[in-house]
Specification:
With 182 residues, the protein is of the alpha/beta class. The chain has one domain: 60s Ribosomal Protein L30, Chain: A (2-Layer Sandwich), CATH 3.30.1330.60. The chain has five helices and five strands, in the order αββααβαβαβ. Strand 1 and strand 2 form a beta hairpin. Helix 1 packs across helix 4, helix 2 crosses helix 3 and helix 3 crosses helix 4. The longest helix is centred in the C-terminal third of the chain and has 21 residues. The termini are far apart.
Length: 182
């Protein structure tokens, strides 16, 4: 197992023992967006608001959504991750821009974020951990480009550990990055 996979897999195993985009393993090579930073062993994913049901690529905690008044009403612009990729779609950027504004100059100014990358249940465990980490890294890179201090963002991956989808609609829900306050 290479060093990167060990860095991602080991903390996830510890989290799983104690327990913030597709998961199918193909011959595709993930294009790293930027270093995702240290893997956090702290995960806070309770009280997540999905935007809107069955189509979300980014989940924002209820606390962030309320404080930042983030709008999830338009299914056409709901954030999503496409199959087997960690590339941000234009629709995802709208929600991330609202989160960035909220934590840089808004009601949550100065607060830190936890990003948890996730994948659907298809594919190998190790691949899905890497894909989840890459997705969290994409979100982290976009938020830092919008002015969020990178030292206030922790990323981790749960891969397919918590995936529940059994069809395309369910898998799309699994392909996401959860965003919470830490």
């Amino acid at each position: 197992m290479n060093h990167i996979a060990l860095r991602i897999f080991a903390p996830a195993v510890l989290l799983g023992a104690s327990a913030l985009v597709s998961g199918c393993a193909h011959a595709h090579v993930l294009q790293p967006v930027a270093p995702a930073g240290a893997v956090s062993t702290t995960e806070t994913t309770s009280n997540l608001v999905q935007s809107p049901p069955a189509t979300s690529g980014v989940n924002v905690s209820d606390e962030i959504a309320r404080a930042c008044k983030i709008d999830f009403d338009n299914a056409g612009t709901a954030p999503k991750f496409d199959f087997d990729t960690s590339a941000l779609r234009p629709a995802e950027r709208s929600v991330l821009e609202q989160v960035a504004a909220c934590v840089t100059t808004g009601p949550l100014e100065g607060r830190s974020l936890a990003l948890v990358g996730r994948a659907d249940p298809r594919g190998e465990v190790e691949y899905n951990f890497l894909l989840g980490e890459s997705r969290a890294g994409s979100v982290e890179s976009y938020l830092t480009a919008l002015g969020v201090d990178g030292s206030r963002i922790a990323t981790t991956s749960r891969g397919k550990l918590d995936a529940t989808g059994t069809d395309e609609a369910g898998w799309q829900v699994d392909r996401r990055v959860d965003i919470d306050l830490r």
